[in-house]
Amino acid sequence: MYRIALNTAISFYRKEKKSKPVISFPEHFIDIEDKDDGSGDTEKNINLLQQFINELLELERALMILYLEEKSYAEIADILGITETNVATKISRTKEKLKQKFLTSNH
Fold first, then answer.
1. Torsion angle in degrees (nearest 10) through CA of 104, 26, 63, 74
2. Number of neighbouring beta carbons within 10 Å of residue 103
3. What is the Cα Rg of the chain in Å?
4. What is the mean pLDDT of the chain?
5. Residues with Cβ < 8 Å from 105, sequence gap 6 or more?
6. Do 98 and 48 contact (CB within 8 A), yes or no?
7. Mind listing the domains of the chain with CATH numbers?
8. Residue 78 pLDDT more than 60?
9. Helix 58-68 vs helix 84-105: crossing angle, to nearest 10
């Protein structure tokens, strides 16, 4: 059942990604300065973040997809069959991993 839910979530994400080129990220997800100076940096940063999410392991990617859909930790835990504590820990670690990739790519 876990694999079905995970594959369904990933398939849904891929299908939505083709029809919607940009995902709206919650402001608290990662600190990206939103200075609208017309340079397109914000869009570039969002595209880069999407690329990094696509490079994650399957479970991490599923967690981020569900997190970005603003599912609660309880809902994510139920869908993926892991504990809420494990969800919180994995999301925190994955966000930190994404943040580090983002920071190193801007240098």
1. 140
2. 11
3. 14
4. 77
5. 48
6. no
7. 2-22+39-105 (1.10.10)
8. yes
9. 100
| Element holding 26 (H helix, E strand) | none
Overall residue count recorded for the chain in this entry: 107
Tokens of 84: 């809420």
Percentage of the chain lying above the pLDDT 70 cut: 69
Q: Both ends of the chain: CA-CA distance in Å?
A: 42
What element of type H or E holds 52?
helix 41-54
Percent of residues in the chain assigned helix, strand, coil, to nearest 5: 70, 0, 30
Q: Read off the pTM.
A: 0.61
Nearest to 105, CA basis, from 59, 51, 65? 51
pLDDT digits (tens, 9 = 90+) for 32-77: 444 445 556 777 878 888 888 888 898 899 899 889 888 999 999 9
pLDDT band, very low/low/confident/very high, at 20 (cuts 50, 70, 90): very low
